[in-house]
Amino acid sequence: MSQRLNAFQVAPGAIEALLKTQNYVNESGLEHSLLELVKMRASQINACAYCLHMHAMDARKAGESEARLYLLDAWHESELYTPREKAALGWTEALTRLSEGSPSDEAFAELRAHFSEKECVDLSLSISTINAWNRLNAGFRSRHPADRPRKTEAAA
After folding, report:
1. What is the rounded (10 degree) CA torsion for 20, 46, 144, 156?
2. Does residue 60 contact residue 69 with C-beta atoms inside 8 Å?
3. Please, are residues 92 and 38 in contact by the beta-carbon 8 Å criterion?
4. Global pTM exceeds 0.70
5. How far is C-alpha 116 from the geometric centre of its chain's CA atoms?
6. What are 49-105's pLDDT values in tens digits?
């Protein structure tokens, strides 16, 4: 698959606006590690390779463990995530999968048990923002950098 277009070059004003929102989220006071997990989980659901690559690298640089990254898709079943992280991941799934139905009262109650009202808004904005990035990058097939060259049949 080849990249369809580069949104950063085509519409820098749109990207700048989204970056301002991202900067607000980054400075909202929510834990960096929590935000990276949210970005990773939404990007998994949306199958956005570009964002998965970027945020896995960012999470690792910030000290996230490989086990927590590998098990993120099965966070419901893992004890590696705190109750606060699980509430955030549940809310991430609910807001990312809106086409499957409105977020449940249970998901919101769990969110409120671990987050203040402002944090609920900031977290929801963070989820909305990563979903916007996913849609731009997946829709236009943004290419993530290769970590290492792949062996070809001829070279093997």
Report:
1. 170
2. yes
3. yes
4. yes
5. 21
6. 989 999 999 999 999 999 999 999 999 999 999 999 999 999 999 999 999 999 999
